[in-house]
C-alpha cells in the first residue's frame, strides 16, 4: 500500500501483498527460533514468485542471514531468481519434467560461490 504524507494512495498491489506475506512468514520463523522453538528447516514457496525480482533477491539475502539460526532453508523459486544470482545459493536443484509415465526428477545445477585455483 502506498502512503504519502499520511494519506493512503491506493490498495496494495499483488506484489505488495506477496512481499508482506513473505516478510511475515520469515519474521515468525525467526521469532519462533529466538524463543527457543527448535527448527532445523524452513520451506519458503508461494507467494515468493509473486514479488518483483529485486524484492525476491533482497528476501534471499534475508534468508541467508537466517542460516545461523535455521540451518536448512528450502526456497522454491522459478528460474529467474536462480539465474540472476546463483552465487547466493549453496545448492540449486532443478525439477525436470519427464514425459508421461516417467517420474520427474531433481537435477543439481551450478550455483554457489565458486573457487578459482590458479
Mean pLDDT: 84
Overall 3D form: globular
In CATH, the architecture is 3-Layer(aba) Sandwich
Q: Count the DSSP helices.
A: 3
Q: What's the multimeric state?
A: single chain
In CATH, the homologous superfamily goes by the name P-loop containing nucleotide triphosphate hydrolases
SSE arrangement, N to C: EEHEHEHEE
Low-confidence stretches are: none
CATH topology: Rossmann fold
Domain unit count: 1
- Report helical residue fraction: 25-40%
Characterize the main sheet: 2 strands, antiparallel
Task: Quote the distance from N terminus to C terminus.
Answer: 51 Å
What strand order characterises the main sheet? 1-2
What percent of residues are in strands? 15-25%
Overall strand count: 6
Q: Tell me the structural class.
A: alpha+beta
Structure description:
Helix 1 packs parallel to helix 2 (53-66). The protein has one domain: Rossmann fold (3-Layer(aba) Sandwich), CATH 3.40.50. Strand 3 (41-44), helix 2 (53-66) and strand 4 (72-75) form a beta-alpha-beta unit. It has helices at residues 14-34, 53-66, 79-84; strands at 3-4, 7-8, 41-44, 72-75, 92-96, 105-109. The chain has 118 residues and is of the alpha+beta class.
Amino acid at each position: 500500500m502506498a502512503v504519502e504524507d499520511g494519506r493512503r494512495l491506493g490498495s496494495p498491489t499483488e506484489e505488495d501483498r506477496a512481499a508482506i506475506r513473505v516478510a511475515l512468514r520469515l519474521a515468525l520463523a525467526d521469532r519462533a527460533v529466538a524463543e527457543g522453538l527448535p527448527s532445523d528447516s524452513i520451506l519458503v514457496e508461494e507467494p515468493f514468485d509473486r514479488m518483483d525480482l529485486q524484492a525476491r533477491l533482497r528476501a534471499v539475502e534475508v534468508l541467508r542471514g537466517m542460516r545461523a539460526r535455521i540451518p536448512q532453508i528450502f526456497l522454491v523459486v522459478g528460474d529467474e531468481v536462480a539465474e540472476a544470482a546463483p552465487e547466493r545459493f549453496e545448492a540449486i536443484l532443478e525439477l525436470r519434467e519427464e514425459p508421461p509415465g516417467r517420474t520427474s526428477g531433481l537435477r543439481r545445477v551450478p550455483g554457489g560461490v565458486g573457487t578459482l585455483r590458479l
